[in-house]
Each structure stands twice: as structure tokens, then as C-alpha cells.
Amino acid sequence: MAVMLLILIATTVWVLLISLSRPNTIINNKYTSYFTIFLLFVYVSILLVTTDNISLDMKQYIDEFLLFDQFNIVQALGFSSRESLFVIFQWLTAQISNDPRFFYFSIWLVFATLLIFSLRRMFKPWQLLVVFFVYLNFFLTFNYITNTVRQGLAISIILVAVTTLIKNNNNKLLFYTSIIVAPFLHNTSIVLSLALLIIRFRKFNLRTLLILWSLFSLLYITNLNSSLLSPLSSFVGDIESYTSSGIIESYGSGVNRLDFLIFSVFWIIYSCFLYSKTKNEQYKTLIRIYIAFNIYFLAFGFIAYSDRIAAYSWFLIPLLVLYPLFKLPNRRLTVSVVIIAFIIVSISLGSLLYSQPIIY
Predict the structure, then answer these.
(1) What percent of the chain clears pLDDT 90, i.e. is strictly above it?
(2) Cα separation of 287 and 316, whole Å?
(3) Which of the residues 53, 123, 174, 245 has the least number of beta carbons within 10 Å of its own beta carbon?
């Protein structure tokens, strides 16, 4: 619908105006920022329930969801082999409505709420709006709320733990709850939970992590990660299932992909450069977390769909890009340029954000 696209264009212009305006003005204030975030949330909600977004993974989730309104919770948990918390989520939503569109909305509601909650801990209202808008234009976001949704929900919870750690927040209950809950949505996140737990107690030197990352990248390039680390894949069910030759062949995009490595290292170089300019300790913690998460990807780059492991670190890219820019003197113009860059990439990749809704 043309009206929807016009609303998106107008909202985009408004976001740019806010980013260019001084804080605490009639344009840039907490009320306009929060209202725009709400408007974007509603826009995406309408988009998700009016657009054909049935992917292979989502079709399987919907098939189970349609059955669960006839099951009790014990039957649902016994029927599905998926992580228990995700099955409970499917079952609860099915009790409210068995309309697939309600399931789409529920996923988005949980993901967006956790994302905004985590970002709000790090940013001022106008900055929160900018980061949220950039996440909507980020190439991974819609895939993880319309396809690989179990992992998407796990990522949103991991982000809560990440921001708690970055802000040196003493809310231990929130941090530990987050890292415990995430694996019950997607079992591959257990490694991230352990990594965050270690980082909480042991603040590794950035140089040490960079050396460790370099060693794992060497294993990645030489394919030695497969022979050395494949036995460890049995400890995480989803990773083990992606090591079979049949799955790798059907994946068709190859393993230990050099383009994934180049993409990953670019953000390390970018963030280390900006850290040298800002010397911000919270940003340094974010860099450490990104490197630790990316080492996880390098270790298991030999599996099919390794980009899903890489996504745990890649989901931090909007934070790596924007957090230091908010600290720069000429930040308003720089931030606006970054917003435009993300929009251009999003449109060029055919993001669902810029698709035309189909009213049922």
C-alpha cells in the first residue's frame, strides 16, 4: 500500500530531523523520540501481519502453533523437540489465538520489547530512537523475527545481558536470568552465556582477545577448525546437526567462508580505531564481547549455516557503529550519514521493511 510507504518515508525524514537537532528542543526531546519509536513499532507490527513472510523455519513453527491450541502444556512439551521455553511461548500464544498473524506479532512484540529495554539502558531517548531505527534497517533483523525466530528471541535476551555488562550494572538478577534463559530458547546461545559469565568475572585484555581471535581465524582459514573442534559440536545439538555432509551440501554456500571472515574483521578494525579516539571503557567492553562472540563463529565456521553462529556477534554491529559516534563533537551530522547508509543497504538488500504490505 502506498500509504504505508509514505508513512515510512515521513517517519524516516523525522528520524533524520531528530538526529540533526540539538537535544531538549521542540524536535529532539524524549516525548518525540518515544512517540517515534512507538510509531515504528506499530508500523512493523502492521507490516508483519499483512505481508507474506512464511519461510521454511516459520512454516514449521506455524504448523506446531496450529496444533498447540488443542494441547495442554505437558502435551505440547512432549510433542515438540524444540527448546522448552520456545515451546511454552508457542503454546501460550496458541491459547490466546490460533491465527498465525497473532504468532508473528507476538514474536515481534517480545523481540522489540527486549531490544528497546536493553538499548534504553545505554542510550538517551533520541539516541535510542536512532539505534532502534538502525536495527530495523539492519540486514539481519527481519530474518531473525520472521525465519530463525528461536535464535532471534535468544539474541534479544543475550542483548539484555550484554548491555547490563557494558553499563557495569549491579543488577545481578537480571544478568544471570538473561544468560540462563537464553539457551532455553536456542541451545546455541549457551556458549554466549558462558562467554558473558567469564567476561563478567575476568576482564580480558583487549590485546589478549585479539591474539586469540587471530589464532582462531588461522584455524578458520586453514579449515583446521573442523578437525580440531568438530568433536565439541556434539555438546550443542543444533551445531551437531549442521555438521552432516547432507546438510552442508544442501546449504550450498560453502563453509569457512572468506567473505564472512572479512566482514567480521572489518568491524574489529573499525571499533578498535574508534576506541583509540574515544578511550571509552564501556565501548572497550563492547568490543571485547564482540570479539569473544565472533571467536565462537570462527571455531564452528565449518558447519552449514555458520552465519547463524556469526549472527550473535554481528547483531552487535549497530552498537559498535553508533555508540562511539554519539561521543564525537560533530556527532549529529555523522550519525545522520550513518542512518542514511543503513537505509541504502537495507533497500538494496530488499529488506522486508520496504516491502509493500498485502492486506488479507
Answers:
(1) 68
(2) 9
(3) 245
